[in-house]
Structures are given as structure tokens and as C-alpha cells.
TrEMBL record:
Keywords: Electron transport, Membrane, Transmembrane, Transmembrane helix, Transport. GO terms for cellular component: membrane. This is Cytochrome b561 domain-containing protein. The lineage of its organism: Eukaryota, Viridiplantae, Streptophyta, Embryophyta, Tracheophyta. Its main location: membrane. Pfam families: Cytochrom_B561. PROSITE patterns: CYTOCHROME_B561. The keyword Oxidoreductase does not apply. It comes from Acer negundo (Box elder). Residues 56-254 form the Cytochrome b561 domain. The keyword Isomerase does not apply.
Length: 258
């Protein structure tokens, strides 16, 4: 057996036996049969075996984006292009829900509260505007929610149970609110006042769930702080508008009473 064949046999055994046993075998063999020139080749073979063992013992690493590596091989098609596509889909999910559920639905609630009677009393315009904001917000938010469900089902790493449960509750509540269009009682109905109270309470509870869920989802995005501050800015603008209309409403109400 030549020296070359000798080392090929050692490397083959290293894939089966533990590394210490192979090193002992190599040491005992080299002390009896290898010359000074072959000793350098022996060191190279040992280094190669150490590198092989290090690769074989690489542990599974996962990130929030769903990218995982085991033995330096990405899981199920996660190439560079696939990761970029996954990132774009997640961004689309966040943007659609922030615009749809997180912005348009609260705007619809502001319209219903402040434009229906006073201070502006847009009797003919407020209801179509309210329906437009609610329906468009519902459609965009539901689309984003569907994308989120797909992301959760396509990756074992992308589960986010709390975010998923809150999203399902938001979808149920918003669907119930949208069905109100078909069961809206007439002005002379006896239960009209009770229905309005229920509709308002349900709407405010829905908005609270939406805000909580958006911040919950933002914590799992890349650049989470930027996502959070963007939505904080959206909420600040909506809050300032609602506050200004509320103050104006109380001023008008005070003048009417006095």
C-alpha cells in the first residue's frame, strides 16, 4: 500500500470512527512507518479531518426570518433570491395591515363620531365616507392578514402564535362590524340606541386589538424600531385630528347650551 493509499484509508475511517481514535491510529502508524517528509503530509491529513468533523457537527441555526442552516446547507429552497422574496412578502404584509386595519379603520371611526352630527354635521356625506374607509380598510387588512397566514404556514420558524391569534380576532371582529351594513336598524326602531352602543364599543375594542397586534408584529420585523416609530407617527396624527375635533365639538356644544 502506498503512502497516498494509506492516507485515503485514514480519512475514510475518520468519517466512521470518533476523531480521537483516528488521531491515535495516525500517530502510532506515523511513528513506525513515515519519514520526515511524510510527517508534513500527516499533519495536513489531521488538519483536514478536524475541519471535516467541525463541519459535521455544525448545529442548526435559525433566525426570525425563517432562514435555517444545517451542515452549511439552507433549508427548503432558501437561496439568496428566496430570502429576498420572503423579505418583500413580509414587508407587504406589514404595510397592508398598517394602511388597512391600522389607519383606514380608525379614520372611519373618526368620521362616524365627528362628522355625523356636529361640529360639521355632514348628514349626506359622512355615511358614504364612513363606508368607503371601513370597506377599503377591511379589504386591505384582510389581504395582509391572508399573507400573514401564508407566511406562518410556509415556515416552521415563522409561527408567532400571539400575533397569529390577535390577527384572527381582528379579522372576526372587523367582519362582524362590516356585516352591520346589512343589519343597520332604522331610526324609529326601538333597539336603535342599543345597537349604536354595541357598534361603538365593538369598534373601539377592534381598534385597540389592531394597535396591539401591529406593535406585536413589528417586533418580529427587520428594523423593528423603524416599523414601530412609523406606526407611532400614524397614531399621533390620528390622535391629534381626533383631539382637535373633540375640543371643537365641546366648544360648539358649550355655545349651544349657553
Amino acid at each position: 500500500m502506498t503512502c497516498h493509499d494509506h492516507y485515503c484509508l485514514i480519512i475514510l475511517i475518520s468519517l466512521i470512527l470518533p476523531l480521537p481514535s483516528v488521531i491515535i491510529a495516525v500517530s502510532s502508524s506515523s511513528s513506525s512507518s513515515l519519514n520526515t517528509h511524510d510527517h508534513d503530509d500527516h499533519q495536513e491529513a489531521v488538519s483536514l479531518m478536524k475541519m471535516t468533523r467541525k463541519v459535521d457537527t455544525t448545529s442548526l441555526e435559525s433566525t426570525d426570518t425563517g432562514v435555517a442552516t444545517a451542515n452549511l446547507r439552507p433549508w427548503k429552497g432558501q437561496t439568496l433570491l428566496g430570502r429576498h422574496k420572503h423579505h418583500l412578502i413580509r414587508n407587504a404584509h406589514g404595510i397592508l395591515n398598517i394602511i388597512g386595519w391600522g389607519t383606514l379603520l380608525p379614520v372611519g371611526a373618526i368620521i362616524a363620531r365627528y362628522l355625523r352630527k356636529f361640529p360639521l354635521e355632514l348628514y349626506d356625506e359622512w355615511y358614504p365616507l364612513h363606508i368607503l374607509c371601513q370597506s377599503s380598510g377591511y379589504l386591505l387588512g384582510t389581504l395582509g392578514w391572508g399573507i400573514g397566514l401564508w407566511l406562518g404556514n410556509s415556515s416552521k420558524q415563522y409561527t408567532l402564535k400571539t400575533h397569529r391569534i390577535l390577527g384572527i380576532l381582528v379579522f372576526i371582529f372587523s367582519t362582524v362590524q362590516m356585516l352591520a351594513v346589512f343589519v343597520y336598524p332604522k331610526i324609529k326602531d326601538e333597539f336603535r340606541k342599543c345597537w349604536e352602543i354595541y357598534h361603538q364599543i365593538m369598534g373601539y375594542a377592534l381598534i385597540a386589538l389592531i394597535i396591539a397586534n401591529i406593535f406585536q408584529g413589528a417586533t418580529h420585523q427587520n428594523h423593528a424600531e423603524k416599523w414601530k416609530w412609523v406606526y407611532v407617527g400614524v397614531l399621533a396624527i390620528l390622535a391629534l385630528i381626533a383631539l382637535a375635533l373633540e375640543v371643537f365639538r365641546w366648544i360648539i356644544k358649550y355655545r349651544i347650551q349657553h
